[in-house]
Amino acid sequence: MYNIGDKIVYPMHGAGVIESIEEKEILGNKQSYYVVKIPTGEMKVMIPTKNVKGIGIRGIVSEEDADKIFSVLEDKSFNMSSNWNKRYRENMVKIKSGDINKVAEVVVGLMLRDRAKGLSTGERKMLNNAKQILISELVLVKNMQPTEIEGIIDNFLDLK
User: What is the DSSP string of the chain?
Assistant: First the structure.
């Protein structure tokens, strides 16, 4: 169980801070929800407290683990499938895992592919989503602004 003020990661949405825990009745079902504010995009999400394990909610990584993410960003040797459909499915599995390292791999792989060959609309959307998920967690760990984190990511990938 998490508490108000805890920093958590919601796979596919990003990291945020629990602002409140509220009882809501939706479709005749009364249950408890975490109200989470995600710093990138100023989005708020409500997560049923009983579904936390099933959807992969976890606490944010440590500062030490966040620093290791930058070594993932430096690795320019990712081999992605040349088949768009297979590449898309593999990247979606990585993003859905909620693992910050795997999300960073998607960001690096797609940014490098974009630079080399360009991206389809679907992959561009996936890149933007993965980047926001990555940024949202690093913002909370490093206590920095989203634009600062995005600049760091771009610098690691030489995309100034």
Answer: ---TT-EEEETTTEEEEEEEEEEEEETTEEEEEEEEEETGGGEEEEEEGGGHHHHT-EEPPPHHHHHHHHHHHH-------SSHHHHHHHHHHHHHH--HHHHHHHHHHHHHHHHHH---HHHHHHHHHHHHHHHHHHHHHHT--HHHHHHHHHHHTT--
